[in-house]
Fold:
Amino acid sequence: MATTAPTTCRSSPTAASRIRGAVPPGLIPGVEDAVVLLPYNHSDESEQILDRHADEIAAVIVEPILGGTGMIPATPEFLARLREVTRRHGMLVVLDEVVSFPMDVHGAQGHFGIEPDLTTLGKAIGGGLPLAAYGGRADIMALVDPVLDPMTQMRHATTLGGIPATLAAGLAQVRALTPEVHDHLNRLGERLRQGVRDIGRRHHAPLQVTGFAHVFGIHWTPTPVVDLETVLTSDKAVTNLLTTSLYNQGILMFKSALGTVTSPMTDDDVAMFLDALERSVVDSGLVG
Structure:
């Protein structure tokens, strides 16, 4: 999803919110009018939108890597500008690190040197079990701390919190993500992405790959993929064909052509994936 910024009142849709596919169907009436969408990786336009709605916006929520949208990493300049503008206007920055946390010991925020006001976490901290967490500035977190204020009206309720097995698995997972494991994942991820780029060049195909660290997304478009609008130029019929071919070769990934490398994987696993992808591209009949 594109960057969203919750507001306290209705506001007119921006150009970014009118991008085809930016706002999915089925939302409760009024939700779209309660947020302002920022164009991902477009610093100048985002700053202008934030300046224009400065009196309405409480917080900017942003993924440092757009996960389900196509594994698109934010540029360091985009994140730095968001942090600069939000500080100027007294807005919070909420960094969604559910996908990006495993990219570094301190997540994407440590890698990019961005200090958010709040962070949301999930998936990687659960060790394969359902677990999520959030944290942030002490003054904000104090608002939901019943120890500090037993009468606080800002309660934190959870269905899954405090389950011993889940917490033990999460602790083991975080301890397993050592700097060496992060380096291993990042190296394998970059080798895979470079291999996909090489396949596109060898076959003069509009094959693109996005991602960072352990995640990647495959796209079929001659347009450089850098945001939501350019993701939508990818031919989904072709990427569906490629992922189906990969399934038939024993490689499982998201049908939306998104994937990750994991710590048990080796260079041989990446080579196997690249060989299978190249066969899929050639056998598709889409290249000469």
Q: What stands out?
A: The chain has ten helices and eleven strands. The CA atoms of residues 193 and 209 lie 6 Å apart.
